[in-house]
User: Fold this.
Amino acid sequence: MITLVLAAIGSFCLLAIAGAAAGRAAVGRYGVYGGCAVLSLLSFGVGLSAIGNPAETLHLPLGIPWIGMHLRLDALSGFFLMLLGLGAAGASLFAIGYGAHEEAPQRVLPFYPLFLAGMHLVLIAADAFTFQFAWEAMSLASWALVLSQHRDPANAHAGFVYLIMAVFSGLAMLLGFVVMAGAQGGFTFEAMRAAHLPPVLAALVFVFALIGAGSKAGLVPLHVWLPLAHPAAPSHVSALMSGVMTKVALYGFIRVVFDLLGGVPWWAATLVLVLGGVTAVVGVLQALLARDIKQLLAFSTVENIGIIFVGLGLALAFRANGFATGAALAFTAALFHALNHTLFKSLLFFGAGAVLNATGTRDMEQLGGLIKRMPVVSAAMLAGCMAISALPPMNGFASEWLTFQAVLLRPELPQWGLKLMIPADGALLALAAALAAACFVRLFGVAFLGRPRSVMAAEAVEADRWTLAAMLGFAGLSLLTGLFPGVVIDLLGPVSQAVLGTRMPVQMTDPWLTTIPVEASRGSYNALLLFAFVALSGGLAAVVVKRLGHGGLRRAPAWDCGFPDPTPMTQYTGASFGQPIKRVYDGLGYVAHDRVDMPAPGDTRSARLISERSDLIWDYLYAPLGVAVGRIATILNVLQFLTIRRYLGFVFAALVVLLLALALWQ
Amino acid sequence: MRGISFDIAHMLAGFLVLASFLMLYQARLYALLHVLALHAFVLALSVAWQAHIQDAPHLYITAAIALGFKAMLIPWALRRIVVRLGVHREIEAVGGIGLTMLGGIALVALSLEVMLPVTAQTDPVAREDIALALSVVLIGLLMMVTRRNAVSQVVGFLSLENGIILAATGARGMPLVVEISVAFSVLVAFIVIGIFLFRIRERFDTIDVGALEQHRGGRQ
Assistant:
């Protein structure tokens, strides 16, 4: 099976060459994206079959001499491969239609397959060199994709920030691997798994993995690149980066912390829980205030990464205390949410792409009334918004409910840090879930309902069939995984078994497909029953209203609230919707200022309300860091202008100092 | 046999260090080139002796290369360059020869101090050779750093390279392919530097590298 993945990676590279050769021709679009879709479906199948089967390894004499390339396909890799295949197949299908509107396809086509190839290789790498190589390939290819419309200064800035964060993440992962390999240089994962690190070094590796994977996944405060890079990239790439690449980063974290380190002390779990909870709330608060649809979705990705990290933190906490049932439940919940997020976030990005193509803008305040012009896209977006807001019977509810079940388990943990943090995380998650619902009500209400706020929105047309196929497919999958969460939980059983040594009880044998995470007395969820109830009561209500009402459809002028000619400007806007929340949470991750710019008496210009928002994390963490780097660079710049003899002298002095150190150290 | 072979190897390596010191002391270009030839000649002797005691005939080729290229061809070519540049009468203003010599002595002490404990388990012949070779390399670097004249910097570089060859042959020899390629790369480097010298001279009427620095853009 692993050879199939390798073949897929090779084919992706060939497709990249083909994409570069095709240039602007339409055949390139069909060939590259079509090929990527087929290959992704293949890796979906391979991943699915790898979950249940024993791990496969392969050693190739490629890469670094004497070490070569170690590859391994086990249950964990299999699950993420499945997730990657699914997300990539959808994104490629969507891209066949979306790519027709691409301004410069020759800047996207070569890198898109390379990006997929990099992500595939990360998942099957089994030594530090291969992993690191693939990780960087993934980062670089996606960076090129972010810069595909590089003439826009905002995109150039996004690419710069993204590149710095990607390099930082790669460096942190590299340091983690170096510490794990130790002086013996056991760079294969097998050797790392067998080595038992002293607690201090294990803690160091944990911190490096958290930073490295966290900055790729979008953990606060390392999330700054997501809201910049996602709007800049083409929509199918945004869907991949948000839906899939962040999951590959999670895979890196799980692989290092759960598998290679084999468990961490309780304080590490507390750290993950704190960061996860903060990430969830900060992400969704920023999402509520975003105007740009894709930026909103990017912030919402940050929120969901927070939820997943809370699940992983719970799993670490329970595992550190030997509470196997809880660990399996929390771990399964985290992976389930990762899968769900891939489904609905990709769907939402497809929708954003479709809206962008139809109207030419991502600005929510320019949209409105799209449900009449783009009914199918709107229906699929509604499904995605429901899923991400965790409304039953969609899949978002199932996984968030499982996470809450893990929070509510509350076994007798001996550590005060965990005793305090787990309920606090429960509260943070509840807050984030409620705010997320508000956020997506805002998105759907402002962009799709009401009346169009611009000519572009009024003249929008329905998306092409490829886009619709991808969106409806993912909406259907979101519903199906929501209706049958037991299938996914059972699928995750072998993964949890392989990583933690325990698994959740088998769900599909329960009567009526009820989901029972621990035991029936502690809570259970029957999605089918709920769905049947919702459908029946909703249908019944519709029938009753139709029958008891006067029946036929009547068109009549609506009550105009006393405005004889309301322009679309009088509608409730996204900013209006976010205003109360902006006031309430001012100071939590951002500072908002509203001020009125009043013209002087006699001046004929109109007064303006200026709304400013500053990101505290950017202002107090990144901006000072940038200033410090600038200062140091200015000081070191002198080194650029020395004489040849000075340079030689530096080399000589460095050599002598090192030799002296060696002589004294012995 | 063991004793005498070791002594001779050690003595030749010691000669090489001594030649390096001579180079460090020598301020006149002609004399410097003579010392360079001597340096390479001692290297050739040392490598030949290693070939003899290690029973490694391919090292004779190394010795021949050292003798042919480094002891004859390169000093002769450098001498031609010096003549054509008309700098053979120039006496270099090297600040504090005594201080430089003291520095060289310190470097030898340092390399012995570093290398002898590190290579405690290895063959004593290789051990001494490597320690002395490191001091030749360091003295070559010191020469490149302290000299202002481009020709003497080239000489420093070539002596440094001799030190590397000495270390490599001491440690049971290196593959012939590597050796030949190193020899040729040195030759190529020499040609490039030679051309470069003329270019500098054409431009600036001197081969004092200090003149180059005044012509660079940007900050000084």
In short: Chain B has one domain: 2-214.
